[in-house]
Amino acid sequence: MNYYLINLLIYAAVDAMACLGLSQQFGIAGVTNFGFIIFQAAGAYTAGILALPPDTANGGFQSYLGGWNLPFPLPWIGAAVVGGLLALPFTFLVGRRLRGDFAAVGLLVTAVLFNLLATNYRPLLNGDAGLSLIPPPLTSGSAAAGGFSVQPGGYQWAFTIGAIALCAAVFWFARRITESPYGRSMRAMRDNDIVADSLGKNLLSLRTAMLVTGGAIAGLSGGVLVSFINTWSPAAWGYAETIVLFAAVIIGGAGNHVGAVLGAVLVPVGFEEVTRYIPTSNNLPPNLIPSLEWVAIGLLIVVFLWLRPQGILPERRRVIRAGYAAAAGGAAAGGAGDAAADGAADGRRGWRPAAEVAAPAPSLAQAAGQQRPPALEGVRLTRDFGGVRAVSDVSFAVREGTLTGLIGPNGAGKSTLLAMLAGTLPVSSGRVIYGGRDVTAMPAFRRARLGLVRTFQLASEFKRLTVMENLLSAVPGHRGDTFRGAVLGRRYWRRDESAAIARAWQLLQRFGLDGYANHYAGDLSGGQRRLVEIMRALMTQPRVLLLDEPMAGVQPQLAHRIGRELVALCQEGMTILMVEHELAIMDEFCDPVVVMAEGAVLAEGTMAQLRSRHEVVEAYLVG
Amino acid sequence: MSADHGAGSADQAAGRAAPAGGTGPGPAGPAGDRGIPVAGLPLRADGVTAGYGGDPVIRGITVSADPGEVVSLVGPNGSGKSTLLKSLVGVIRVSAGTVTVGGRQVTNLPPEEVARASVGYVPQVDDVFPPLTVRENLEMGGYLLPRRQVPERIDRVLAVFPRLAGMLGRTAGKLSGGERKMLAMARVLMLDPGVFLLDEPTANLAPAVATALLGEHVRALAARGAAVLIVEQRAKAVLAISDRAYVLGGGEVRMAGTPEQLSASREFVDAFLGGQPQGKPATS
Amino acid sequence: MSLVVPAFGFGLVTASVLAIASVGFTLQFGVTDVLNLAYGAVMTVGAYTAYLLNSHGISVWAGLVAAMAAGSLLSVLLNAGVYAPFQRRRASPITMVIVSLGMTLIIEFGVQALAGGVAVSYTTGVGPTFRAGGLILNGEQLVIMGLSVVVMVATHALLRYTRLGKAMRATAANRTLARNCGIRTGTVIGVTWAVTGAMCGLAGTVFAMDLGSFDATSTDLFLILILAAVFLGGPGQPYGAMLGAVVIGIATEVSAAFVPADYKYVVAFLILLVMLGVRPVGLLGQRQ
Predict the structure, then answer these.
(1) Domains, chain C, ranges and CATH?
(2) Which residue in chain C has the smallest CA separation from A240?
(3) Which terminal residue of chain A has fewer beta carbons within 10 Å of its beta carbon, N or C?
(4) Are A399 and A575 in contact (CB under 8 A)?
(5) Is A457 part of the contact surface with chain B (CB cutoff 8 Å)?
(6) Is residue B210 part of a domain?
């Protein structure tokens, strides 16, 4: 009788671990890994061949690699390691280049392929029959000891508790990774990977880390399972099993760790249990119940995706209270000072509290402007698309501390130029010089880390992160924003986080969105989302900020407010280059303004000057 | 405006397409007047508000185009010109206001029904079917025609765009920019609609080609009797061929009038170059 | 060496079955933008429909017609009842794939629940055996190849010469523009599901014939071959699918002459993975 409960608990623990691993990949990082089952299988096989004696033992009826009869815990450690390593070659299939559904198909096919190879290549892992007589941990390794079910009750309970403890450890670990700034970056990548890239997140590294972590967890779960059931064969890990795990994560709630455990309990485990209670009758065909189980799982998947795609326990909203900052608020000056000190140490200039700035004259511009070195320069920049030349031999310089406007009719090449300066588009020829340094070959995320940051025209907030999280996701050099930092825990990155939160609150108050700090960014109005984007860019403490139509679709009143804040930022030392169509804004806030037409720079000056120049008027009217 | 309709009164009475096997394709070469009138339909948009799901991009727009007129929509980028056209043909949803064609309500009808209301639309991009041949593209343009009429209609359209006649078998994806635009215009001409909506037809065309397109082809559409509403970046060029124009800005109509009236006004330049807002309150 | 020629013959038969299936799949995807992984399940329904009639004494060739009808009806229902509603909600492509996997489970195991897990086969007269230059094929196989050619020609004719076929290609290329031309794309898509569903039912039946004995999950592995052929030729490209089917069908069978038969699918899988990694638009696809 007890064996039934033990069986139930161990399967629950194993499935929960697997689901936690899958939830990390699918729910948190947004990687749909239909090959997930391979990792569990690899772990199980590894634990098997490490624990088994050489294949000549037991009468030599099996044929497999390895067989080193290693003691516990080595088989389980090996399982986790192999599961993790196996993930590395998969990274090429989950890159951004491939359409999501195509990549999913590729992974599914890979899973079937591996299953086919394992089934048919007998010397590898004993083919179709699989491995058996795998000794349970901490028992004598010979066949005579039998399997798990023969062990004394005390052993079985100890194993069960060990499995549950391991599951709890995995839960704790997954939680630690996810509830860190690193986890936040992963979720940002899930929501909008292009934008995450431009904020300096290394997408490849993030995805690889999650594939490896998820793989290791899956491998470990396989190791535990195989030590319990003492056998493992390809039939245990077909493509149907992956679907069950996905169903579990979707139903329980992708992106929620308790949800992953719940899903594991409800779906793989729950189904097994429920069918036990269905009365069998000789009138029913023997395969009817298992078939109906599968039908039910399919139905659940479709129904849940329709009615409640977020699962039973949806991803939690992370709320950050004002009190957090108030406590740090007294230290806000200190916090900002810390941030400035950190910034200075990195050679990156952040804002300085107003008092520290050698305040330039409010009418920035003319006199002061001439003397400063250019913060950003384009030298003979050209960009071709197929046969069309979008930007043609453009050279200009943006002076430090100025709010420079970039205008021109449609098709003039403004956005293309901006993209080349930011690094999101490569140049066809020419150079980009940032702070005296040639960054032409540098990718966007590295330029971002050096303080050259851009915003985007189209909606680019992270919809399923709160406004506060959107802002925090942009903070560069955050100690918690690495895998190591996440693992080391809150104590390690707490200071950087408080400082960032304090700065974020300042910004929110400055732009009037502090009441929305804990709302999902996707729920805000268009104008508010634009503000979030600008604030997020400001969190990176840029030296040079490239704004791509920040006022598009924004009400005039709000646009003016944004304009005033931008001017204030320039007075505090930032340099801003802004592409805009709302020329009234240019008039009021920007000096100088550069006009482009047909891929080349036409003129430069204040709006008032430009309006009186014939060729500028012509460019706009001629188009 | 001053083009004379060379067709006989029988054709005028028949209104739309030439009687089967009737008057030939008209003079080859420059489109000009092909002498086959079309029953143009008046287009009215009243207080149209529309957007892409979030906040509206255009608000309370009221414009009209009558048969035989070329009406242009100009304005700085981001002013909502393309959005307006898309909302008129049902590609995006109208949240307030009405659109009528020939007095018939077409607000929020799906695009295929708007086409049946005799509205021809040439989008700015994605304006042809790249994997289909030129001939097949034209056939799709004539999808709503009775099958017998299609070959003859193709002949007529090729008379307007003779260069296409040599490329009927070529895949549309392989055409140059100018050729594609021609094909896009020819495609919509197949239907011979009562209303033409053209979204920046000269975008990415060389200036000489653009002038020819506007001056010859677009004017000719109205000359035959259709109502033409055309969105353009090249304000000067399009005003030269227009009977009336609207200037859009910030999602609303800022100015309206004849080209003469508009060009003479200082406000017109300001509307493009962001001078003083025209009497609009700062809030909203 | 002397194994190669008969293997080539088998390859032609496999290619024929694969061609019918792949062209249907790719046409579905091209016009409707749904990667319908439940395609294998619909094939299974077709195969079992024919079996149902066959087990009551009706010739399997007549059963084939019933299979086409069943496949057609099921596919139309699948779209109208499941895929289209999700698409209207703008579900992501990944969600659509997962939904199609869910439908696979429902349909395949639904069939298994009804029909039992035991493998079945058709009773057919195999007919005379033909030999030519090392090729050995029986009557049934020749009919399958013939059917495949008929389907290819019919597809070509549909797409190139009929108004509906051109409307399908137009809808696949640019749905909005097709609507601007007055094409009722909703109807075109529905008809596409009906036509490709019929092809799917047909493919399922000839697949079962070729396999000999089959059960409710026999098409699982075959679906991968279909995907390989589709992606080799380019998703959404019917002529690409034909090309892909020939290549995959022959490569798979010929490789069985050199490596143990169980590995023959490996070739197909590797081709698929390479195409996805290197050139996802396929050999005949155009980069967007």
Answers:
(1) 4-278 (1.10.3470)
(2) C105
(3) N
(4) yes
(5) no
(6) yes
Do A61 and A131 meet the contact criterion of CB atoms below 8 Å apart? Answer: no
Identify all chain B residues contacting C179, using CB atoms and an 8 Å cutoff: 90, 110-112, 115
Strands, E assignment, chain C: 120-121, 129-132, 135-138, 213-214
Chain C residues with CB-CB distance to A99 below 8 A: 93, 280
Over residues C41-76, the pLDDT tens digits come to: 999 999 999 999 988 888 888 999 999 999 999 999
Best mean pLDDT range from A332-336, A583-587, C73-77: C73-77
pLDDT tens across C17-39, in order? 999 999 999 999 999 889 999 99
Of the candidates B185, B256, B174, the one whose C-alpha atom is nearest the C-alpha of residue B217 is B185
Min Cα separation C276/chain A (Å)? 7
Does the distance separating the beta carbons of B132 and C167 come in below 8 Å?
no
State the total domains in chain B.
1
Q: Which residues contact B142 (CB under 8 A, 6 or more apart)?
A: B149, B150, B153, B154, B190, B191
**Closest CA relative to residue C280, chosen from A101, B43, A164, B245:** A101
pLDDT tens profile A369-408: 455 568 898 999 999 987 788 899 999 899 888 999 998 8
Residue B185, domain member (yes or no): no
Q: Decide if B274 and A583 are in contact by the 8 Å CB cutoff.
A: yes
What's the CATH code of the domain at B211? Answer: 3.40.50.300
Asked whether residue B142 is assigned to any structural domain, the reply reads: no
Pairwise CB contact (< 8 Å): A109 & C227: yes
State the maximum Cα–Cα separation within chain A, in Å, rounded to a whole number: 98
pLDDT top residue among A331 and A598:
A598
What whole-number distance in Å separates Cα of residue A413 and Cα of residue A393?
Answer: 11
A99, A240, A299 member nearest C93 (Cβ):
A99
Of the candidates B112, B139, B141, which has its C-beta nearest C185's C-beta? Answer: B112
For residue C125, the distance in angstroms to the closest alpha carbon of chain A comes to 30
Cβ contact (<8 Å) for A581 and B76?
yes
How many whole angstroms separate alpha carbon B232 and alpha carbon C20?
48
Q: Does A622 touch chain B (CB under 8 A)?
A: yes
- Provide the token pair at C137: 């094929």
Q: pTM here?
A: 0.83
Which domains are assigned to chain A?
A: 2-236 (no CATH), 348-461+524-622 (3.40.50.300)
Residue B87 located in a structural domain: yes
Chain A residues inside the 8 Å CB shell of C228: 109
Q: Do A411 and B233 touch (CB under 8 A)?
A: yes
Under DSSP, is residue A388 helix (H, G, I), strand (E, B) or coil? strand
CB contact under 8 A, C273 and A92: no
**Under an 8 A CB cutoff, do B129 and C179 touch?**
no
3-state secondary structure of A414: helix
Q: For residue B53, what are the domain limits?
A: 38-130+195-273
Which amino acid, one-letter code, is at A426?
P
Which residues 288-327 of A have a C-beta within 8 angstroms of C?
Answer: 288, 291-295, 297-302, 305-306, 309
Strands C213-214 and C129-132: unpaired
DSSP line for A37-62: HHHHHHHHHHHHHHHSPPTTSGGG--
The three state secondary structure string of C225-279 is HHHHHHHHHCCCCHHHHHHHHHHHHHHHHHHCCCCCHHHHHHHHHHHHHHHHHHC
Cβ-Cβ contacts under 8 Å between A and C: the total is 129
Q: How far is B120 from chain A (nearest CA, A)?
A: 25
CA dihedral A155, A159, A165, A166 (to 10 degrees): 150
Q: Give chain A's mean pLDDT.
A: 82
> CB A555 to CB B273 under 8 A?
no
Distances (CA, A) of C199 to A412, A477, C12, C65: 50, 57, 19, 10
Residues with Cβ within 8 Å of residue C178, at least 6 apart in sequence:
B129, B140, C167, C170, C171, C185, C188
